């Protein structure tokens, strides 16, 4: 029965209609499905399909943005408040700033990862997409970030990740801020080459990575 609900959640995202996504989300919640499972087993599956179809040229940028917007709206309006309410007495495990690099407007994976980190107990500051290195640095200073995560979904924008590492060095923040990276064209080898602290390909990997970098026991 649960698998049917997760399929319904996934299919609702593929309609690109936020009302359909909200309706499927409310139905899942009424059946007692945990908000984290809604994200991980429902939305993530759909967003992977959208991303794969976009890479193959079957979907266009319009569909990519529409799917991201539908999920983000449900996360912001319904699921994140429920997660926060469930964990309102928690102690923050650390402060994370997350965004998509300058020149890149893709937010799907980054928003999902932000929600997973939030659910895991981190104080997450999502600075959006098309974010300059200066904005990453300003936000990291403002919130005293422990970790900064920068996503790039286009091969033409991954050099921005290297620029981010150099900018944090120049700003004198590199020693105290961990820098992690992700996105379709990003590899573990690339992150090592640019001097980053870690690579994550999935939301769960991102949570484990941040916990490991901050020496937080599972």
CATH fold-level label of the largest domain: Rossmann fold
Total count of strands = 5
So, CATH architecture of the largest domain?
3-Layer(aba) Sandwich
- What is the level 1 CATH name of the largest domain? Alpha Beta
CATH superfamily of the largest domain: Cobalamin-binding domain
Number of domains: 2
What is the straight-line distance between the termini?
Answer: 30 Å
Task: Give the count of helical stretches.
Answer: 9
Largest sheet report: 5 strands, parallel
State Rg: 17 Å
Question: How would you state the average pLDDT, rounded?
Answer: 90
How are the strands of the biggest sheet laid out side by side? 2-1-3-4-5
What is the structural class?
alpha/beta
Query: What letter string, H or E per element, gives the SSE order?
Result: HHHHEHEHEHEHEH
Uncertain residue ranges: none
The percentage helix is 55-70%
Query: What is the 3D form?
Result: globular
Provide key terms for this protein:
218 residues, Methyltransferase, Methionine Synthase (B12-binding Domains), Chain A, domain 1, Rossmann fold, 2 domains, 5-stranded parallel β-sheet, 9 helices, 58% helix
Task: Walk me through the topology.
Blueprint: H1 2-13, H2 18-30, H3 35-55, H4 61-86, E1 95-100, H5 108-120, E2 123-126, H6 133-143, E3 147-151, H7 159-170, E4 178-182, H8 188-194, E5 198-199, H9 203-213
Parallel strand pairs: 1-2, 1-3, 3-4, 4-5
